[in-house]
Design goal:
29% of the residues lie in helices and 23% in strands. The chain has 435 residues and is an alpha+beta fold. It is globular, with a radius of gyration of 24 Å.
Length: 435
Amino acid sequence: MSGFKSHSEATGGSLRRLPSKVYRASPQSPLNIDFILPEIASGHFSGFGFYYRSDVTVSLQSNREWFSSRFHTNYEDPLSVNKCGFIWQAEEPNDFRITLTPSRATDIEIFNAECGEVWHDFFEGARDNVLKNIHTFAPEANFYTRFGEVVIGATAHEKPFSVVVKECNRCARFLPINLPAERHTLSFSNHCVAKRPCRHKGFGIVNDLDKGVFVELEYGFQLECRFCKKFVVNAALNPQRSADQMKEDSQRRRYFELMIAEMSGVSEQLAFRHKTGVELASFIWEKFGKKCFKCGDRLRTAREMHLDHTRPLALLWPLDETATALCGSCNSTKRDRQPKDFYSQTELVELSKFTGIPLPELLKPLPNINVLKALIERCDWLVDDFLNQDFLKKEKDGKTSAELICKSLDRVLKISELDFGDFSFSKKWNDHFLA
């Protein structure tokens, strides 16, 4: 355990509904939100944040150059709430305006528009790697110690029971989530993605306090909000982990890359350089206009860029010319999400043009059938040679990397939409191991 107990008055397994404010806006008369910050104490953060929703596409701009599209989500779903927020270190007041412009005349819902000085005890003495990309946790990380003023330039009316909020079992706050589009995450990360539906009480079976019933979710949500998960749970656990434990997930991804490369006899990146005479990273950097595809921030060099597997490596797609150029912040925010759960519909159409991946495949990524078939055909090589290497057979917590790779491959089999009979990589490995 992290050493921190759950809040005495919170379980993390309840949700309720709170009202929002509704404002009329149009392309000719956009909605302006002015944030007037107070004086910020030395070493503390400035911050702002709000949640918004509309039945049409809404573009956000600011009168400040530092504002970027990476400060807000864009789910383009009339039922989904979006969030906008940022945290930065600056001691002087920094008033600014955010302008929301809808594609046509409509109502825009605004929830919890706030700004001010941000601080929390967990920031004190936090390591640099913990504070890195803290802005991606706004607005849920915005614990205001001194509030500023927020002025919205339109007349509002209240919309009751509008925004669904879920309880955090650490800080006891109720923070927004999206239902039914659970993968459009806001303040809480999903609990079960690969093994949905989530049927864990408190995670996927939650208590609707307003209706007095239990609600079953598809993916479910973590008990802790994203802030508490990072600063209360992970920050306490990480110092106790070894370097190997900290790198376990990335190692497993590298094993997949290595497995595909060894089976085919060549790395896709090396093959690309040999075929074109250009490094893959440089090619992607140039193709995406030397900027992050998601937020549009400039990437000064190819080394500054993060190459993202547009189609998941977990589905056996190696890093090749279909990769996406992202900045570090956007790549960190994307995490394990599928393209359809991270990009808007408009962005997906553009991404399809950039990468050459058909739009239906971005909306529903399927396994790399050619690689999957090759692994089945060369299963003897897989279990006798590749998985039989000492570093993959080393046991940890009662499991080996070889076993976990086989289980991952079996999951790929299940969603491949092809009939492979009763074939199982795990069974092949167990038969080999017991022989």
